[in-house]
Write a structure and sequence with these properties.
The chain is mainly α and about 260 residues long. It contains 8 helices and no strands.
Amino acid sequence: MLSARSVFREILDQDESFRLFCSIAASGEAQGGWENGRIAALVPEGERALAPKIARHGADEDKHGRIFHALLKKRGLRPVAVPHETDYTMLLEKHGIGLAHEQLKADKPLTVPDIVTYLAHSRVTEQRASEQMRLLLRYFADHPDIGRAVRMISADEDNHLAYCHEELLRFARAGHGRAIQRTLRECALAEIRVYRDVSLSVMDHMGRLLHWPHAKRQLLTGGIHAMYAAERAGGWRRMVSLRMPERRDALGGPATAAPELA
């Protein structure tokens, strides 16, 4: 029977598909770590109190990248080059979502609208990350190889999402509500398209590595298109709502250390 659990199990059990999976994940986390680090360094003077939280966010992303590299090392595998069409983070930037890397490479301080854009982009992408990790947590929390990593990363992604909600609500109270809602909507609609395209590309690569029959590939492709249709019809709205999280100041402390996976 074809299910999300069985597909993930196939990917995790075969070395080459596991290698690609971890390489894609590590690359995305490393990019997120760099972006947050640069944003923390460029926070405008009036928002300097936010800089340690942004830096903590970046440190968590860097840690996640190291975790995925450690999972590869544990199985005696090296990372592979990430195919461009599977690079979720860079494709979002290419579509004008978030802050451009050229802007982050400069030394010019960001503006408050820039910080609002960053937080709105993060609120959307962290929603996706939190959902993905909760799915893996449901299936593999007790997995001997990846269980500890999944539990830690899932908790971190939930913290990141909580932080985005809290900070965006603070900016909304300060008069940025309309800009926040406009940016959230733009980000969400772009993200679901990019996520669909990346999912199709990843499944294509995995299908070739795992020698999936044509019928199985078609079924998985149909599922991805159906998910996009549901998100386009209204599912994207879950990515733009804001509510005060139960856990306040979720990124108010230092980043936790990566678990020992050896």
